[in-house]
Design brief:
This protein is an alpha/beta fold. The chain contains ten helices and seven strands. Strands 3-2-1-4-6-5-7 form a seven-stranded mixed beta sheet, sandwiched between helices. The chain starts with a strand and ends with a helix. The protein binds guanosine-5'-diphosphate (GDP) and magnesium ion.
C-alpha cells in the first residue's frame, strides 16, 4: 500500500521546508509514504526548496493556474505514481501532520472513500469572529447542497482513496474544497470527517484575501455546482413559478373581463402571456438540461474508466 502526501504550493519558499519536516516518514497501514509537490507557477524558490528537501514527485506549472487546477494535477500525478491513498495538506504547515494516520484510517478500514479533517474552527485564535461564522455558514450550505454531514467543508486536509480519485472532477478555478464534497455526496461516495489539530499561523491566508471576495466566490461556486448537479430541478422551479404566476394573472384577467367590461386590462394580458410562454420554455429547457446532464454523467464515467486504464498501463510499465 502506497500513501502519497500532496502539497499544492504557490510561492511557499518560507514555510515549505517546515511543513515537509513535519510530515511522517511512515504511516501505519502503508508500506511506502511518498511526497508530491505541486508548484503552481511560483516565482520564488519553492521548487529549489522542494528539490533540496528531496521530495519524491514534483508537478510544475509554468504559470499560476489556481488551487483547483493544482489540486487536480496532483491527484492525476498521484494516481500515475500508484497511490492507494492520497492525502492533501497545506504548505504553510497549517494542519497537524501527525493526524495523517487518523485521516487515512477510515479508508484503510474500508468505511470511507474520502475523509475530511475537521479543524477546531471555534477555538482557532487567529481566525476572526466573522471568519469563524462564515466558515461555519459555508459548511452548513455545503452540507445541504451535498446531502452530507461534513462539519468543516473548506478544510484542505483530506484523504482520498484511489477509487474516489478516479471519479473526481473540479470545474471551477478557485478552490476544490467545496466542489469535491458536493460531488462526493452527489455521487454517493462514502465521505466522513475526523477531528484534526492545527498549528500556529505562519502567514496570512492566500485564499481568504477579503471577506467580500471570499463570500462572492464561495456562493458562486456552490450555486454553479448546484445547477450542474440538479439542472432539471433548477430550471423546473423557475419555469413552474413563472407559469403559475402567468396563469393566475390570466385567470384574474378573465374575471375582470366579465366584471369590468369597460376596461381592457391589456397590460395584465400581455404580462400573463409572457409569463406563461416563459414558463413553458423554461420547463422545456429543464428537460434539455436533464438530457445534457445524462451526457455529462456518461462522459464522467468514461473519464474515470480512461484514468483507470491509463494508470494500469503506467503501473505495468514501471
Ligand atoms: N496550486 C496552487 N496552490 C495555491 C494557490 N494559492 C494557494 N495555494 C496553496 O493552497 C494551500 C492553501 O492555501 P492557504 O493560503 O493556506 O489557504 P487557507 O489554508 O484556506 O487559508 C497552500 O498550500 C498554498 O500554497 C494557487 O494559486 N495555486
Ligand atoms: Mg493554509
Amino acid at each position: 500500500m502506497k500513501l502519497i502526501i500532496q502539497i499544492p504550493c504557490y510561492n511557499e519558499e518560507k514555510t515549505l521546508r517546515l511543513a515537509l519536516d513535519e510530515l511522517p516518514k511512515t504511516v501505519e497501514g502503508f508500506d511506502r509514504v511518498e511526497i508530491l509537490i505541486i508548484n503552481d507557477g511560483s516565482t520564488d524558490n519553492t521548487v529549489g526548496e522542494a528539490k533540496a528537501w528531496g521530495v519524491d514527485h514534483l508537478v510544475s506549472f509554468t504559470r499560476n493556474k489556481g488551487l483547483a487546477r493544482g489540486f487536480m494535477a496532483g491527484i492525476e500525478a498521484s494516481l500515475k505514481a500508484g497511490a492507494d491513498v492520497i492525502v492533501n495538506t497545506d504548505a504553510d504547515n497549517q494542519y497537524n501532520a501527525k493526524d495523517i494516520e487518523k485521516l487515512c484510517r477510515p479508508i484503510l478500514d474500508g468505511t470511507a472513500d474520502m475523509v475530511i479533517g475537521e479543524r477546531p474552527i471555534n477555538n482557532i485564535e487567529h481566525f476572526s469572529c466573522i471568519k469563524k461564522k462564515l466558515q461555519n455558514l459555508g459548511s452548513w450550505v455545503v452540507r445541504k447542497v451535498s446531502r452530507t454531514d461534513i462539519p468543516d467543508a473548506p478544510s484542505g486536509f483530506r484523504a482520498i482513496s484511489r477509487e474516489a480519485a478516479y471519479h473526481l472532477n473540479v470545474f471551477n478555478d478557485y478552490t476544490y474544497t467545496l466542489e469535491t464534497i458536493i460531488q462526493a455526496g452527489r455521487k454517493n461516495m462514502a465521505i466522513t470527517s475526523v477531528p484534526v489539530g492545527v498549528n500556529d499561523d505562519l502567514r496570512p491566508s492566500r485564499l481568504f484575501k477579503s471577506m467580500r471576495a471570499y463570500i462572492k466566490r464561495s456562493i458562486g461556486t456552490i450555486f454553479r455546482i448546484g445547477i450542474i448537479y440538479e439542472p432539471r430541478k433548477f430550471f423546473s422551479w423557475i419555469g413552474i413559478v413563472s407559469f403559475i404566476l402567468g396563469t393566475s394573472l390570466g385567470i384574474r384577467w378573465i374575471i375582470l373581463y366579465f366584471v369590468d367590461p369597460l376596461r381592457t386590462h391589456i397590460p395584465s394580458l400581455i404580462l400573463a402571456s409572457i409569463l406563461i410562454i416563459m414558463g413553458v420554455l423554461v420547463v422545456v429547457m429543464a428537460v434539455l438540461a436533464d438530457l445534457i446532464s445524462v451526457n455529462r454523467k456518461i462522459l464522467e464515467e468514461n473519464q474515470s474508466r480512461l484514468r483507470k486504464l491509463e494508470n494500469e498501463k503506467y503501473s505495468k510499465k514501471s
